[in-house]
Sequence to fold (606 residues):
Amino acid sequence: MCGIAGRVGTEPLPAEEITALLGVMIRKQAARGPDGSGIHVSGSGKSGLAHTRLAILDCSILGAQPMESRFGGLWITFNGEIYNFPELRKELEREGAVFRSRSDTEVILALFSRHGVSSFRMLRGMFAFGLLDEREGDLFLVRDRFGIKPLYYWESDGEILFASEVRALVASGRIPIVPDPAAAPAFLLTGSVPSPMTTVRDVRSVPPVQYLQFAHGKPSIHRYYSSDYSSKVDLPPAEARITVRRLLEEAVISHLISDAPLGLFLSGGVDSSLLTALAASNRPEPVTTLSVNFREKEFDEEPFQALVARRYATDHRKISVTPDRIMEMLPAFFESMDQPTIDGLNTYVVSWAAGQAGLKAVLSGLGADEIFGGYEVVAKYPLVKKLQRVPLLAFGASRVLGALNRKYLRLQGDGMEGTLEAYLACRGMFGASELVPTFGKDAVEEAIGVLVQSARWLTSSDPMDEVAEMEFRYFLLNQLLKDSDVMGMAHSIEIRVPFLDHPFVDFVASLPPRVRYRKGSNKALLAESCGDLLPEEIWTRRKQGFTFPLDSWLRGPLGDELKRVRFSDDRLQQSFRCSLDGFLSGREHWSRPYAWFVLMRFLPAA
Fold:
């Protein structure tokens, strides 16, 4: 895992200017790569690549980047892991390829040399890379299927800059720092800034499962792979269960490859416990597990963590998190935040613990809830879709549905498509109509337009598949994975997500909803496939996400921080105070005033 940056233009620059430019960008990402850095500037003066390295595979100098292909002319700066690189390497060696290193980076170069852009779909892993063909002058910016690894760019007048973080691009000094007026309402709608938008007007992210080709001074974006929830296979239930288990075990085994210390986040829930079971069963030495504990008993999962750790004899490390410790970490946490997010504090803290334990890579259970419908939103979504067809019923059901219905009613008439509107009724934070008086109609409509664009790529009309796709395109991509990358990298920790191994995801998505879901059962297919691996108490426990007790903390010392928030814009201050008063009186969820607390750090008016 690393930080990457680069510049390509139609006009040459002095070598020292490009070197200085890339040096600034890569130093801004120093935490991503404490094990070394490098810069390559082309002889033409038109291009350059930079890299800061967290050495996980082939920690020798042979794995250093930017890396050149064996026959020259092709350079890469790469962030991520390719889990099928041993198989790809063997195939390339049979075709005559010769390798100098044991790195997956060199395999990407060799594969592209033989297969061009069609090689991107052959990669199994998490990745974002800039690949420069100096012979043709073309740059390829490539991102993995689910957007596990970030990749941002700015392009203007025949020049393109790219990096792993928005703030690295800003630090270059070549980009006009114009805030995107739609970013703030988009964040308040969803809890994150939706791809491809960022807080800076002309900085965008390369979409997942796509690559950007910059040729002759012009960018074009292409899709290299398409997943399709509408295409289903009809398998006997027993065969489906066997295949789910086999593919998950293969994913975990492939994610264990590392030349650096590796462990697991163990929350005590089904997903992390399963990864622990499979990892421990496929490693000769005890695996290191990390857990977070709280004084607040309703949030503390220590008994379940201990149950799994004992069963699989892990080297178990625990960290106790208190409000005082969070107050100490808060300034560094916000300093690490590249883009505003309602989440991420939990990942920041557990990544800190991983660093203290001497680890460089950890496995996380992210993705399982999206695949198997573990979140409450999956149960709510079909109901909201029905309410959309009978608005009067929605109004009359307000006493029964409580907060869900109030949120749904706030969204009525907001100009969104039905699918997105129903999804945000379950997952969103603020209604668009609430934000117009503060940010203006144009900014809110632009934010909605970005969200609607993603909804148009849905491939299934079944409500259960529909909400699964929405979870991937919004919540997982824009919040969970983004936070996982940024907060892990803040402590030089690579976070791996075996549940997002694409053969596993593609297979589960190909199963009909009736096979994947059972009403009233938490991740039924996963339990049927892997039930023997965990104690019964893990399978039957109440669903609890990896969350901190922020509701109570924000009524204590952390809440005092919120009370000191002051926006210079009266409209922003009034909206914030309304949310804070609503929370303190018990009418609002803690996330609403906290969102303003986060946003304050990204708004020029603050």
The first helix runs from residue 15 to 27. Residues 398-406, 412-416 have pLDDT under 50 and may be disordered. The two ends are 34 Å apart (CA to CA). The domain at 237-372+483-549 is CATH 3.40.50.620 (Rossmann fold).
